[in-house]
Design goal:
The chain is α+β, with helices and mostly antiparallel strands and 281 residues long. The protein has 6 helices and 15 strands.
Amino acid sequence: MTLSIEKLGDALGIAAEDIDLNRPLEAATAEALHRALLDNLVLCIRDQALTPAAYLAAMRGFGRPLPQVRIASRHPEIPEIMILSSEDRDVMGDGKRLVVGAHWHSDDSYKAVPCSLTMLYGVAVPETGGDTQFTNMYRAYDDLPPEMKSRIAGLEVVHKYDSPRKGTAVATLRTDEAAQLPDVVHPLVRRHPETQRRALYMNPNRMSHILGLERDESDRLLNELIRHALEPRYQYRHRWRRGDIVIWDNRCTMHKANADYPAGARRLMHRIIVEGSVPAA
């Protein structure tokens, strides 16, 4: 199998073509994809045509897929697949339209053991709009002044599913689902378990406050770091093609979905997350 690799953005992002994930990958190809993801943080595998079962099987090569938290959004036959659609509504809440991931975030940070990777399969994409933006949290950390690195070393942040700092609405959970998600504490700077590089570990939509700081001071510091991490020089904007599978590393990136496609346009994504580890400083 021939592997064609193309850099997508200056800050992060790479695309692989000439791969059919309906077929088992050769060991060398699988290793090349894994290395491309570690080095570039966001990996797009182009031109796929997969059944949900085949998609799940292919993604097992990157880690152990996990069941989705919200039962209402699960694929009816495969609980490891979350269906994201332009038709989504907050079915357990007010019933209004819901754009999952519309604010900057890192998946699963509200869990004690967040997922490591997220996979999103573009089953149907609008002709215009609906891009996904990513930002490189390695570079955001590396570029901090030494005094700021010293200031934030060892700080810990409370993450929660429904944070008072959230920028957009989050889906209402069932009582039993919410009970599985108590508030958790994670380091503000985490070390990647494979690359050993440090990155800012932030989730503007799920962070509540920094432990040990007054609320005003915590908010000022978090806001300053978020503004820095979202500078355009750290970002890549993915313009979807039908059949794209985009895989990203939540341990060193943030991302957001854009709902700027025309009214009536269809956007359908199948999402898989894989097992991670407890964030460590």
